[in-house]
Specification:
It is built from no helices and seven strands. It has a four-stranded antiparallel sheet, with no helix packed on it. Strands 4-1-7 form a three-stranded mixed sheet, with no helix packed on it. The mean pLDDT is 91.
Length: 99
């Protein structure tokens, strides 16, 4: 059985629109896949990453996953969570709120 990944490209920005490096990203969620016709399987998944100097990171996910991504930036900015479903490679921007 081969499971194919999809990639979620995440950019984290501060309230002014500037990139936020060194933001920890943690993604958790559920996934449902068909192992064979009429043979679905469900489970949970998690992955993590850290943004680079340009505020960007790439997370590897299973397709069809409904995930919650929690962005934990350096001190001075609030933690923020978003929930999305990912079926194919995708790009999202997480805009942090004010302190």
């Amino acid at each position: 059985l081969t499971l194919h990944n999809v990639f979620l490209h995440v950019t984290v920005l501060d309230p002014s629109g500037n990139p936020v490096p060194n933001t920890s990203l943690f993604a958790t969620g559920s996934v449902s896949i068909d192992l064979f016709s009429g043979g679905p399987a469900t489970g949970s998944m998690s992955t993590s990453g850290t943004t680079d100097a340009s505020g960007a990171a790439q997370l590897s996910l299973l397709p069809g996953a409904s995930i919650t991504i929690t962005a934990s930036p350096p001190p001075g900015l609030p933690q923020t969570s978003v929930t999305i479903s990912v079926a194919t490679d995708a790009t999202i921007t997480i805009q942090l709120g004010g302190p």
